[in-house]
Design brief:
This protein is α/β, with parallel strands linked by helices and 98 residues long. Helix content is 47%, strand content 23%. The chain has 4 helices and 5 strands. It has a 3-stranded parallel β-sheet with strand order 1-2-5, with helices on both faces. A two-stranded antiparallel ribbon has the order 3-4. Strand 3 and strand 4 form a beta hairpin. The longest helix has 14 residues. The radius of gyration is 15 Å and the shape is globular.
Length: 98
C-alpha cells in the first residue's frame, strides 16, 4: 500500500497479477486482497507460496497444508482465482498472445 506499484502497473497496462511468495496467510493473502480491491484480476498460485505450521492461542498446531487450504477458501471467487503454477503460466501466456 502506498508504494507506487499500482501506478506503475496501471501505466503499463497490467491488469492481471499472479501472486506467489512467502507467508501464504500473511503477505500473499494481504497482497491478493489489496490487488483485488484496487481492481486487478488476481491469480493466486497457492503451490508457489510458502508458510509454516502455527500454534493457536489455545495451543493447537495448525499445519501448513491447513493454512494453505484456509487461505484458498477465503480468497477463492471473492478476491482471486486459485490456480496451479501450470495454469498461471498458461493464463499469462494467453494474456500475452492477446
Amino acid at each position: 500500500v502506498g508504494t507506487g506499484l499500482q501506478g506503475w502497473l496501471t501505466s503499463r497496462g497490467i491488469s492481471r497479477l499472479a501472486i506467489a511468495g512467502i507467508r501464504t496467510e500473511q503477505c500473499c493473502e494481504t497482497t491478493t486482497r489489496n490487488a483485488s480491491d484496487l481492481g486487478f484480476e488476481v491469480d493466486y498460485v497457492t503451490e508457489a507460496t510458502l508458510t509454516f505450521p502455527m500454534t493457536t492461542r489455545a495451543g493447537r498446531t495448525v499445519s501448513s497444508a491447513d493454512i494453505r487450504e484456509r487461505t484458498e477458501l477465503v480468497l477463492a471467487d471473492r478476491f482471486a482465482t486459485i490456480v496451479s503454477v501450470d495454469q498461471a503460466v498458461e493464463r499469462a501466456n494467453a494474456a500475452l498472445a492477446d
